[in-house]
Amino acid sequence: MAEQLMGLDLNLDLDLRSRNHPRKNKNGSSFSTFSGIRYLSLFRTFYKLCILSFLILATTEVSSSKSKSQACSDCDQGKCINGSCVCLPGWRGSLCDQCYGRIRVQPGKSGIIHDGAVNYTKDLACSWLLDAGESKQRILLEFHSFATECSWDHLYIHNGDSAFAPLVAAFSGIVGDTAAKPRLKFQLTGRYVFIHFYSDAAYTLPGFNISYTFDDCNLQCSDKAVCNNSICQCEPGWSGENCDVLDKGCLFNCSQHGECLQGKCHCDSGYRGLYCDVTEGDLFVENVKVQGSLSPTGQASASLVYDESDSLWLFGGYKMGNEEVGKDIFRFVLANETWLKVYEAANESSPWPRYGHSTVFYKDKFYLFGGVCEGKIKADLWSFDLALHEWTQLMQAPRDLVGHTAHVVKDMMVVIFGYSSKYGYSSRVLEYSFDSGEWSVVKTTGALIFGGYGHSSTHDILRGKIYVYGGFYSLSTTSYNLTDRLYQYDPNTKEWFFLSYSGSARYLHSAAMINGLMLTFGGSTYSDAQRGGQTKCFTSDFMIYDRDCNTWHNLPRVTEENVAILDRVGQSMVSLNNEIYMFGGFSSIGKTDLYKILPGSCSYFKTEESCSKASSGVKCIWVTDHCEVLQQGFKNCVEKDNSATCSGYNTCQSCLNNLQSSCNWCGNQCVSPQANLENCTKDVSSCRNAVAQNCGIFQNCLSCQENNECLWTGTMCEERQSKRCSEHKTCTECRKNENCGWCQDEGATKTGRCIDAMEDKPSALSSSCQIERWFYKQCPQTENRAEAEKTICSKKSCNSQTSCVNCTKARCMWCSSWNQCIDNNSYVAYFHYGQCMDWTTISNTCKESDCSHHKTCSECQAVPKCGWCNDKTNTGTGTCYDGSMQGPIVRVGRNSVVDSSVCPAERWFFNDCPKCQCHGHSTCKNDTSVCKSCEPPTTGSQCQFCSNGFYGVPKYGANCKACFCNNQADTCDHVTGACYCRTRGVIGMNCDSCDDKNKYTGNPKNGGTCYYRLTTDFQYTFNLSKPEDQNYTTINFLNTPSSSDRDVDFTLNCSSTAFINITYTSKSFPEESGFISGHLCDYFRTKFEHKKHTFGGRGNTTFMVYVYDFKTPFLLQISFVQQEKINLYKFFIIFFSCFLALILLVAAAWKIKHKVESYRRGRRLEVEMQQMARRPFSTIAVEIEKKSNPVVVDRRDHIDSVLRRRKKIGSKPSSIALEPLKDNKAAILTLLIQLPTGNSDYAPSGISGLAVGSALVAIGSNRKQSLDHIKGDRPKMRKNLTYTHPDVCA
Question: What are the disulphide bonds in this sequence (predicted)?
Fold first, then answer.
């Protein structure tokens, strides 16, 4: 039983102290004033009862835990072994229901991949390697469910054996629904498909469940077939080589609006479409049947431009596959609907590759500007000669931009908004002159606008205006959102104007003019405010904006059969001849289709009402008896916004300075003069500068400093002050005022004065300041003039950081898959198509994405892009590299190449790990995972621990170090090296100090030890049963008696087996002298006589007690006592004195009580008399019956006699007055009292025989009274009489 107890974690706190109430130390000991020690038998009995109770509770807990552990039978991706789930490789969680790392897929032609039975976790990476068994197979993936966070959590599918293989798709958001299960199929270039999932550290969603099938059919084999030996076997009702021809009839029966002839629908009049499901009055989206086999691959954020002749030109764009960015130019000939590849003239320089750029056509040349090229945002401008097919690089723009738009206005190229790596989200307009070849940043007027990335813009040539809609913008370095704003820009007057909001914020959509209307399509409506919610990333909405009426109209969705096909972002759109062509885009995969969008026909509408409401890409008007097209510029508004003339200006200056109309500024809005609002003004001078009020919108130094009204303070953009220069006492305040500059005092570095400035030089009135002491928009930092004049915007931008650590320390975002640093709010601008497969903003996580940082095979393969090179010793060590199934991968620029020289094929592991995992400290037995014998000082099944007496983490080939404990411990913590000190009171990492906070003293170094200092005449109890006490085997004490004329009684009581040594020292004998050694500690008591030992004074004898070789849990009681003999003379004097004092105290208390009660009775009588004296007086008439002769009572029966007695008793006179007191608990009762008449029947002559009496009574206390029975038989019934009048005297 004792051995079993030593294995339990006991934490008993037994009270084995003396009868007096003890005080307890922090160290777990307790002490009390000495008054005798409990009997040893009582101590042992109590201790055994506590141990028995603990064993019962522990047994109950163990059985309970066993029953709970049996629940692991529900393991999802693992096996239940010994009551716990042991997960398969690539899974984790208590029930193995969360994917993690490389998941091993069972070989076969079909299977299922999913992220687990529960919502996926944050910051997660999982990967699957699917093996078709042979090359040139086709894979079909069917999405049963898919829900991840849009734009942030992606499932990547690669046509190859690694994350470096060509990317086929990047799925995100909501894909499909319960009714429609999307499918993806593609032809394998090898035998593998690599799939990996990445989730950031923000939100989690249900995840995905996807089934896959390999077969050997061609890619065109439709879903209406089963592949059998490379042959499409059609389902019933389908035929053709690819099973895509319906045997009988047409699909959907031509929507009941057409005739099916030879498997094709011939629509009735008024209907059109493949299935005759679109009326001629609706907007019609037609898939252009391209002739020939040549076609561009799926490209997004490309530019599609009309050359004003007969062709559409396609430049660049982001695409998936072997090349992530398009390098080719394609031309679509409208006449024969064919694509042609344009071959460029031999030239050393060209703008490729890039996407997110803009392209315009002007005088037989295309002008391409900006965009992203090799991960960098560009500011270069290129021209492409239509005749020579040659590129020429022109003057670089003032800023780099991506996600902008551009239009040709006269001889200028107008560039609107975009995102810049240096300036952030731009609200500026740039102009490039085709004639002069010069760039300029336009100083605009009008409304204060907020520009951004991914907007659309259209040029209304008839009105001479540019309409800018939607986009992604940011107002701080960490926040960003979408907008549904519509701006109007006048390139002639450089004025901005607000138009009607659409009510649907979006970005990466497209827009074009058609019949004087602006048509917008698609884009993403997901914003950061929706993060965590389930939503689709791509839309297929059509919206129409009518500038004449300043109104928006949502067009009906296309038919359900085509809605999933049209969902996309980043498509290109161009308008010509009142038709719109749309190409490409992105919807988890790159889109390669070309659509033509045709407006509705006014002639379809047969009523005036339907004609006037037509908005399907055309405006109609009812003329006499038919509907016809309304010519552009003529207004026919059903719902017109009449307030748009003034409400389009959102600042005071733009409201009062506009040239279009006369407006008033009232409070915070611009209104027409007819509004009749209060607090209005027309005085422009009273307006505060609008830009200055909104300096906070500029997110970095460069964008802030280009506005003279604002000043960058180092962390934020603030409004410049407008005080007089002389009022600024510091350089920091001075430079905030654009009209001032700082003149440094001669010979000083920190003092100076603020003076007027003219542009960037001292004004004529302040010309006394020498130029070498002049500072404008900056302050002197050092005596070095060159250092002082460094621009305040010299801090490196995020884009210039080249390492993860430096990037994250600069509060930027690092994308490890691109080795690129970007601003925290620019993820969407750089990686909207899922290009970044792993990112972080925390420097501590930088190593996680670096393969070389991982030291074990399992950790290495948990990163999708990594593989393991086993060490040639085959002991479990190795190196983690970027890799694929074929071998390690070396990056050459942005290309990835397999380099087998880095690791031989026989030692390369990508989809599994070597069996032997002994961390470099042992080989394995006969090609198994069992380590032969771990090299000392390592131990464990995989040599993963240090042996006793050593510490460290011997994984990854590391070694163990010996424990250093000053000879005060037998072992230490196997990982940290913290010593397990065996003596209570010895503390420290190396057992090198005493716990002086808890009264331990001494020096444990060099063979010394620590003692607990005991105070004489106190009894101490030490409880060593807590978990932190389990390593103690020794405890030491010392005591120095203080009284020189008394003996010392020593008592020691131990709860279990231990041994004691007692020694003593003094000034006369400084060396320890033994008193007892090796004595068994059970109950030990002895006396040290003062005649043999010198106590107190100069002798100063000190006793040392050593208790050792015990095992916890252990309790002991110890005391040193110098008792004085009882003096009987003093005892009796004190006793009788106390007794006499007690008697006097009792007598005094009784006397006080008697006085108090007497006083209270007097007060009560006085109150009663006062209440009676306050009674009101009144007259009352009383009727008194005449007294009759005695009635001869017939006593013939006993019952009649009883009744007469009751009647007599019941005829008592009642009260004539009852006067309640204020508290309604007492009252004064007034009664008529009959005076006694003696033996006569009447009162004597001259006396009335009546009197009036009063009494103070309690109200409401009813008292039951019973009658005395007449002697004789007891009546059969007894009745309690209750009187309702008060009858209790107060």
Answer: 99-126, 934-943, 946-960
